[in-house]
Design brief:
single chain, mainly alpha
Length: about 300
């Protein structure tokens, strides 16, 4: 018996399952957990979801703060941009989108967020001068068109009737753009830091950015508006879809190839559709199902083409 091959298969399986669990937790968060904070200000929600995990991580990782002083100006700027786009703006956009649909079309918002690779690769071509793979524009266009039909079906959007849906869809796409931007900016910083330290610094920097945002907007003291249910949801988010999912995802990413990781990440949108039906009774229409399949297929194709070049 080839024990090395057996160990390799076991390692790959553990990695794949870790990514699948993380992605499922993100799907559960988008459908069940974050919408449960709808009574709070969006900016305050984003602040608290970064501030509390940063405090928890600081108990164990505070000694790593000295590493921050050793970063050069360019690396610190990259870290700031990762926190600004991936932490602050991206999270504000997606949370606001989830709040706007009032527990309706939640899975659509989550699926639109999966357009992230389209923006990440486009921005990498502009900022990092990385040449996109062949047929990228074709598959990116297909993904964007599928996103339209996923949101509105065969109908033209009605400004008044579909106002919140239009705004939510736009914010979900802005979130995808922001997270894609974060991916591009993180390439430089991840060459210097391990993922645990990078995650710690990202939460810390995002907390710093959001502190000033909530302070200026007058929401810093919104703790008084938090209910027992809000606190319960926030604690669950921090240890499951927050820190728990991030560490599970990166743990798995170290053990599997990028192509397999891309496939396992599909548990995110698929679980979102499942949870939206289980908890809210929502199910996609036939044209939305078809659009969701096309969107996911296009994103898989974009990811696989990009992974093969690494």
């Amino acid at each position: 018996m080839d024990y090395q091959k057996l160990r390799d298969k076991k390692t790959t399986l553990i990695g794949a399952v870790s990514i699948a669990i993380a992605a499922t937790l993100w799907g559960f968060d988008g459908i069940v957990l974050t919408p449960g904070l709808y009574n709070l200000d969006v900016k305050f929600v984003v602040f608290i979801l970064h501030f509390l995990p940063f405090i928890v991580m600081s108990v164990f990782l505070y000694k790593r703060l000295k590493v921050f002083r050793n970063l050069n100006s360019s690396e610190k700027i990259s870290l700031f941009l990762v926190a600004l786009f991936g932490g602050a703006l991206g999270t504000i956009f997606i949370v606001k989108a989830l709040f706007l649909v009032n527990f309706k079309s939640l899975s659509i918002v989550v699926l639109l967020q999966k357009l992230q690779p389209v923006f990440a690769i486009s921005l990498a071509a502009i900022i990092l001068k990385e040449k996109p793979k062949k047929n990228f524009l074709l598959w990116a266009s297909i993904a964007l068109i599928a996103g339209y039909f996923l949101t509105f079906g065969f109908h033209l959007p009605h400004i008044e009737k579909n106002r919140n849906t239009i705004l939510a869809a736009g914010l979900a796409i802005l979130a995808a753009f922001s997270f894609g931007s974060s991916t591009v900016f993180s390439k430089k910083i991840l060459n210097k830091l391990d993922f645990i330290t990078a995650t710690y610094f990202r939460y810390g920097m995002t907390t710093f950015i959001m502190f000033w945002i909530v302070l200026i907007s007058g929401h810093l003291l919104d703790f008084e508006y938090m209910t027992a249910k809000n606190w319960l949801f926030i604690i669950i988010i921090i240890f499951t879809s927050g820190l728990g999912a991030i560490f599970l995802y990166y743990y798995g990413l170290k053990k599997v190839k990028a192509i397999l990781a891309t496939i396992m990440e599909l548990f995110f949108p698929v679980s979102a559709i499942f949870f939206d039906y289980i908890f809210n009774g929502h199910i996609l229409s036939p044209v939305q199902w078809m659009s969701a399949v096309v969107l996911i297929a296009a994103i898989i194709k974009i990811n696989l083409d990009n992974a093969q070049g690494d």
